[in-house]
Amino acid sequence: MTSTKQHGGLARPSLGARLRRGVEPAVLLGPGLLFYAALVAAPVLLVTGYMFARRGRFGGVEWELSLDNFSRVTDSVYLEVFRESLGLAFVATLLALLIGYPTAYAIAKLPPRWRTVALVLVVVPFWTNFLIRVYAWIVLLNSQGLLNDLLVGIGVTDDRFTLLYTPGAVVVGLVYSYLPLMILPLYAAIEKVDEDLLEASADLGAGRVRTFLGVQLPLTMPGVVTGSILVFVPSLGNFVVPELLGGGKTVMVGNLIRDQFLKAQDWPFGSVLAMIVVVLLVLLFLGQAWVTRRVEGPARG
Amino acid sequence: MSTINRRPRRIATAAVLGTALTLVLAACGGDDGSSAEPAALDPDADLSKQTIVVSNWEAYMPEDIAERVKEKTGATVKITSHATNEDMVAKVTGSGGEGLDVVFGSQPYLEALSKAGLIEPLDTDLLDNWGNLESAATDTAEVDGATYWAPYTWGTTGICYRADLVDEAPTSWRDLLEPTDANKGKVTMMGTERWAMLPALKALGYSVNTTDEDELAEAKELMVAAKPNLLAYDDSTFYERLISGEATMTEAWDGWCNYGTGEDENIKFVVPEEGSDLWTDGIAVLKSSKNKEAAYAFIDTILDAETHAWVEENILYNIPNEAALELVPAELKEQYETLGTRREEMLSGENMTDVGDDAAALYNQIITEVTAS
After folding, report:
1. Do A247 and B372 touch (CB under 8 A)?
2. Mind listing the GO biological process terms from this record (chain B) (predicted)?
3. Which of B92, B192, B372 lies at the smallest CB-CB distance from A77?
């Protein structure tokens, strides 16, 4: 602890050191704080205000107190959209976890120089524009597309499958888009696991399954939770994938919110929907913090 | 109302094509911002010093339009694009129109903007080429006695289909809303704006401009029932889906169906027996524009026979410009019936107009709930 506080310089007058100590955090945190204040806090406050206003004809709001939007959101149509969005995001997260865990595990067990190569390969798709990557799935999945061509070509089927514009296509798009966000934190967690603990577990008679469930999984739980949240959150709010791969028929809450602002010009209702998502996400993050503290907390004393 | 001394007199010279703006202003100011009188234009304005920003749909006018305007009038034109009418309205209202001078939009939306006082009535006397326009189109550009936009294209909405992939050619909106088993999952409908509700409203025999809540509720029910049989909601790429064979029938505008017909002769367009709309897209000048002289110059360049003919020849929509129509080659009218023998049919639908604030909110809510269902 003591060795890290040397940077003030021993010979400096204490006033300068104190000043510097005050300025440093401000300089380091300032840009970030400014960014959050302008681009996170301010919009959230604005949206909070909009919730209680009335819709303006051309977007915008009339500042006239109204609670209609809160009752409207309880309409079964909208509750169903929330249910379906949560469902799709959950399935996408689960699939990403099932694919991501073995992948991250395999990467962590590679010889060090191959690890870097593998990690770069995981990230490479991110270098291509998100929209283009999603459009690629249209080419693959549509009824006249490559996958159907392949299935017909090798004689699996004569009838072309309807793959595109289904909830399944949306899940595929979400998993594909966010898988790297699952793999990376899992890799970090798995890599940290002490081999000795696993050996000890085996020596004490635990089978592979028991070692995994009793030792490996709990130790990597923070990675599992972080990865899951990193996939779940953008999946829940996504509106591009449902629009392109769901054909506008599978509506997720992200689409609903976007449409209220850009199509229906109903900002107050859009604000209520958006705030519900914000609250859901805050609850999720609190859950994540809780899990992380439970696993890592005691170790730090 | 607008006959008295405010009317600008023109002293324009024998004008070279398109130079609408070598002309005179309204007698005097009196521009309180809320009147339905065209703003006074400055006859001495130096167009070469004016720059306007025009918002239009992508690929909906000659690519070299800025050069054409520059050449004819000296004004500088910058182009930006909007994807939909709603987009355009959001752009105009979001900023109070700042940063935009001229917008392209469909009649219901321009009408609403005019009622909100966001677009400027046009003094058509200042547009040399205004006389080229068909009165059927200019008449509908009037709101409360003032003309608010220059009609640009017009047409109708129908079913664009692959004649070789359907057993029977569609004749009714119900062929789209309640497709036969063979066509289930192979039809698309538009998912936004007024055209999302058009098939259901017309299938039920109602007006495309209805404000009756019961009629709208009935249409909503039909739309919810139709949704499971759709391939997708599609407002922009339906003709591509027909070309690939992914779709067999799509709700389409006549001109965009022509894009398909151009690629595959089996792609045909039918106006269902229950009837359809007559939509008009127009060009309007924003009230907030500081460069109205250049805005007029831009519009007049578009209405010039040669430029407007380009629009029909390349965008394949009908145009309401008699002088331009004479320049459109006969072969084109033969290749695309909607521009030739069937032109009258394309223009015989029910004029699509603004339904007013309350009904517009209801339309939007229904569309939201149908897509969310």
Report:
1. no
2. polyamine transport
3. B372
Domains and their CATH numbers in chain B: 47-153+280-326 (3.40.190.10), 157-275+348-372 (3.40.190.10)
Average pLDDT over residues B188-196: 92
Chain B residues touching A57 at Cβ < 8 A: 112, 116, 357, 360-361
**Per-residue pLDDT tens digits for A246-261:** 988 888 999 999 988 8
Of A208, A274, A215, whose CA–CA distance to A239 is shortest?
A: A274
Dump pLDDT digits (tens) for A83-109: 999 999 999 999 999 999 999 999 999
> Across the interface, which of A249, A256, A266 has its CB nearest the CB of B227?
A249
Are A142 and B244 within 8 A, CB to CB? yes
User: Which residue intervals of chain B are DSSP H helices?
Assistant: 65-73, 85-94, 107-115, 135-139, 173-177, 193-203, 213-226, 238-244, 254-263, 292-303, 305-315, 322-325, 330-335, 343-346, 357-372
Given CB atoms, is B134 within the 8 Å cutoff of chain A?
no
Query: Which residue did the predictor score with more confidence, B238 or B309?
Result: B309
CB contact under 8 A, A162 and B185: yes
Task: Copy the structure tokens of residue A84.
Answer: 């379906």
Q: Which residue has the higher pLDDT, B12 or B124?
A: B124
- pLDDT (tens digit, 9 = 90+) per residue, A10-21? 555 677 777 777
Q: Look up residue B84 and give its amino acid.
A: T
All structural domains of chain A with their residue ranges = 75-300
- How many contiguous H segments (helices) and E segments (strands) does chain B have? 15, 14
DSSP class of B37: S
Complex-level ipTM:
0.74
Give the sheet arrangement for strand B187-189, strand by strand.
B230-233, B187-189, B249-253, B157-162, B267-270
A75-300 belongs to CATH 1.10.3720.10 = yes
**Contact status, residue B193 vs residue B84, Cβ threshold 8 Å:** yes
Beta bridge partners of A62: A54
Q: Which of A147, A259, A269 to mutate to test the interface with B (most CBs of B within 10 A)?
A: A259
B42: pLDDT strictly greater than 50: yes
Which residues are CB-neighbours of A68 under 8 A, at least 6 positions away?
A54
What pLDDT is stored for residue A178 in this prediction? 95
Q: What is the mean pLDDT of residues B78-94?
A: 89
Residue in chain B lying closest to A253 (CA): B372
